[in-house]
Each structure stands twice: as C-alpha cells, then as structure tokens.
TrEMBL record:
Transmembrane segments: none annotated. Residues 1-36, 226-240 have a biased composition (Polar residues). Gene3D superfamilies: 1.10.287.1490. Residues 241-262 have a biased composition (Low complexity). This is NUDE domain-containing protein. Residues 1-48, 222-270, 309-336 are annotated as: Disordered. Residues 37-48 have a biased composition (Acidic residues). The lineage of its organism: Eukaryota, Metazoa, Ecdysozoa, Nematoda, Chromadorea. It comes from the Eukaryota.
Length: 336
C-alpha cells in the first residue's frame, strides 16, 4: 500500500519537475524574445513584459512549492515504508519463534506416539486373540439372527395364510349369497316365463280359432260373390255383336281383389257395364254397391288374417326362445 503511494507520488513529482523545466524554458524564451524583438514589436510596452515575467515567476514559485511539498510527502512515505519493513522483519521473527515452538511440541507428541506404538506392539498378540474371540462370537450371533429371521418369516407366512383363508372364506360366502340370490331370481324368471308361455299358448289358440272363423267368413263371402257375379253375367247373342254408341265405364271386380288373399274368385268372362248400348245388360246400382262392399270386406279380412298370422309367428318364436333359454338354464345350473 505504502509502496504504491510512494511510486505514484514520485511519478507526480517527475511530471511537475518536467512542467517546471518547460516553464523555465518558456521564461527564458520570453526574455530572449523581449531583448531580440524586431521592428514590428516595438509597440509592446515594458509593463506587459514585467507582468508576463511576474506571472511566470509566480507560476514557477507555485510549482516549486508543490514540488517541495511532494518531496516532503515522499520523504514521509519513505520513512513509513522503512518502518513497515522493519515491523515486517519483526513479525517474521515472531512467526519463526512460534513455528519453532510448534515444532518442539510436535516432536514431543511424536515421541509420545512412538512410545504408545511400542506399547501397542507389545499388546498386539493379546489384541489378536481378543479379535479372534470377537469374530467367533459374531459368527454365533449371526447364526442365531438367521434362525430368528427364519422363525419370524414362518410366523409372517402363517399370519398371511390365515388372513388369506379368512378373505377366501368371506369371498366364498359372498359368492354363495350371490349364487342363492341368482338362483331365486332365475326361479322367479322361470315361473314368470312359464306363465308367459301359458298365456302365449292361450293367445295362440284364440288366434287360431279367429283365423279359422275368418277363413270360413272369407269362403262364405267369396261364394256369395261368385253367385252374384254369375247371376249378373250378360247373355249376348252371337249373331248381333255389341256395338256401344258411347264409351262405358267397366267395373272389374277382380281388379279390386287384394293380391295377398289366398282365395281368388273366378274370373269373369265379360266385365260389368253400368251403361252401354241397348243390347248391354244394365247392372243395378245397389248391386254394384253390394259387390264393392263385399270386395272391401274381403280385403279387410285378408289384412286381418295376415296380421293375426304375423302375431302367431312372433308368439311362436318368442315361446321357442323362452323354452330354449329355460332348457339351457336347467342344463347349466349356477355353480356355487
């Protein structure tokens, strides 16, 4: 720290000395210039030269004072540096004495350790015997610890097996209760299905009877229609063909028949005519209404028969499905 300050002050001192020399040189140049002025500088007064000289002398004196102050400061720092170096030497001597003291203590401890080592070497055989005894004791204890661990493991396995048995027993009991409830549910379903089968059988018999009755009615209506159409069949002469004077509206009863019916009436050779020539047979209006009404009744009966047949088929299929499912459940009872 002090050496750094001393170096910086010395550098400042050198710079000031350089500036002082440059100032003195300027002063000399000014004096020489004032004595050797040419004709153009005769107007410069003597007072200005004196002022400039005084200013330069003041600056030189100021710089000299600064240099003296810096020299004194450098001397103080040099003195402090010398004192610090002397104190550092003293500190080094003290540290050396301390290290000597520590070295003495370490040597004493080393001697003590050597004595202890000698005593330990004397007791080495005894320590070896003790170590062997301890090793044998450790082996015996290790065997006992292994036996105790095996016993503890066996007890843990027994406890786990008992807990597992309890869990399995509870699971089996739950499965038994579930199976019993499932059995009761199946029995109730079976009884319900038996009742449903009986009801479906009854409905099937009723539908069969209704179909037979409707078929009888259909046959009766078809026979009545054939009789009506045969009684109203026109009788035309083979020598005089019929030449209608104006277009007639012909009614075909066979075209009004439903295609789904299995009872198709006999085809009429000549269609009925509501109006025509003088030789055409005129069918009464009420008879036409009767025929149309019979056609509508036949169509309705045929549709009813088709619906009943579909219901019968559906009921039969459901009954067969219930029977098959019941037989499968009887063959495969619930395992408890």
């Amino acid at each position: 720290m002090l050496s750094d300050q001393n170096a910086s002050l010395q550098s400042q001192l050198k710079s000031l000395q350089t500036e002082l020399e440059s100032t003195q040189q300027r002063l000399q140049e000014a004096e020489s210039a004032s004595s050797w002025n040419d004709d153009d500088n005769w107007n410069q007064t003597e007072s200005e030269d004196v002022a400039l000289r005084k200013e330069l002398e003041a600056e030189i004196s100021k710089r000299n004072a600064t240099i003296e102050e810096l020299q004194r400061h450098v001397e103080r720092l040099q003195k402090a540096l010398n004192e610090a170096s002397e104190s550092a030497d003293m500190k080094a001597l003290e540290e050396m004495e301390e290290m000597k003291h520590q070295l003495t203590m370490v040597m004493e401890q080393n001697n003590l350790l050597k004595d202890s080592e000698a005593r330990l070497m004397d007791h080495a055989d005894e320590y070896a015997e003790q170590m062997e005894r301890h090793r044998e004791r450790c082996v015996e204890l290790q065997v006992k610890v292994t036996e105790l661990e095996e016993k503890l493991r066996a007890e843990q396995l027994e406890r786990k097996a008992a807990a597992r048995s309890v869990e399995e027993f509870s699971v089996l009991r739950q499965q038994l209760s579930t199976a019993e409830s499932s059995l009761h549910h199946t029995q109730s379903q079976l009884s319900n299905r038996e009742g449903t089968i009986a009801e479906l059988t009854k409905k099937l018999a009723e539908h069969t009877k209704t179909i037979e009755e409707l078929q009888m009615k259909l046959k009766t209506l078809a026979a009545s229609r054939r009789q009506v159409t045969s009684s109203q069949r026109p009788s035309t002469s083979s020598q005089n063909p019929v030449t209608p004077s104006r277009p007639s509206s012909r009614l075909s009863t066979s075209s009004r028949m439903s295609t789904t019916s299995s009872f198709v009436p006999e085809a009429v050779s000549n269609p009925l005519q509501t109006s025509g020539s003088a030789f055409d047979v005129v069918v009464p209006q009420n008879m036409l209404k009767i025929i149309l009404k019979m056609d509508e009744d036949i169509g309705q009966l045929q549709n009813a028969v088709a619906r009943i047949r579909e219901d019968v088929v559906t009921s039969s299929e459901n009954s067969e499905k219930y029977s098959e499912k019941t037989s499968e459940e009887e063959k495969n009872p619930v395992a408890v």
